[in-house]
Each structure stands twice: as structure tokens, then as C-alpha cells.
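User: ok so my PI wants both of these folded by tonight, can you help

Assistant: No problem, let's get them done. Here's the first:
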Amino acid sequence: MVCRSGNRSGRAVAWLNAQGLETVNVAGGMRAWAAAGKPMTADSGRPTVI
């Protein structure tokens, strides 16, 4: 799972794992992804905004 900072998705992952699902959180969220220079695209084709 992923969110902007990793906090909300981290809570969701904890809940889903407690329900028996195997899930992982993207550490640092989309902010960390962008800061690492990873590729990002928007469905609209416009520049991405986090």
C-alpha cells in the first residue's frame, strides 16, 4: 500500500495483516518515492503532484 507519507497506508497495512492478508507498506510513501527519483506518471498525462 502507499499514501503520501506512509503513515495512513502503514495503519491500513497493520489492519489488513491482522485480518490475515499479506500486505506491505511503501516506506516513506510517495514523497520518499519521488525524492528517490523513481518514475511517476499521472493518468491524465499532466505532471504529477504529491
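One down. Here's the second:
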Amino acid sequence: MNARFVIIGCICAFLSVLFGAFGAHSLKDALPPNMLANFQTGVQYQMYHGLGLILIGFASAYLPNSSSLNKAGWSMLIGIVLFSGSLYVLSMTGVTMLGAITPFGGVAFLLGWLLFINAARKNIKK
């Protein structure tokens, strides 16, 4: 088991709940609905990929010595920082140029899932 990804995933999930509560209670009246929706999208994707990191951590016990699995974990973490992070900052500052960063985070998420698939595929017994 790769405890590093389990811990990082748990921290991301914890922060997602914290940010979600902050958005629901503190930002509800402070942000326009479209910016609040952007913030909540960041929260949702952070939670999904935090859980993905936990899954990768546990999967490493069954898919040993997989460089693809390690790369998948780091790719998901980069995705959280770029995708969710840019949406948080965009929604709270209104700096729309930050929206240009968000797709790079989405690509990192997709790459992470593809690398996870590749790690599993390599371990299929023929």
C-alpha cells in the first residue's frame, strides 16, 4: 500500500469538506451565483480526486511496482491544485484569466485516470 497517496487523498477530502462548508455558509451571500457554482465545482472535483488518490494508495498493494500508478497519483494531485485551485481563486477574486489554467487541471485528471487504467491493465493475468 502506498500510504503517501492515502494520506494526501484524505487531506484533500478533508479540505474539500471544509471548503464546501465555507462556500455554503460564508460565500453564499458574498458571491454571485455563477461564481458560487464555480467554487462548488472545484469542491466536487477535489473530493472525487481525493477519493481517487485514496483508491490509488490502496490499489498499490494489488498492483505492485507500477510506475503508472505512481504517476497517476501525482497527476491527480496536480489536477486538484490546477483545476480546483484555479476555480477557488477565480470565484473569490473574479480574475477570469485564471480560467485558462482550469483545463490543464482537467487534463491532469484525465491523464491520472488513464495511467490508473494502464497500471491495472498491466496486471491482468492472461
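The chain has a mean pLDDT of 94. The chain has one domain: 3-121. Good luck tonight!
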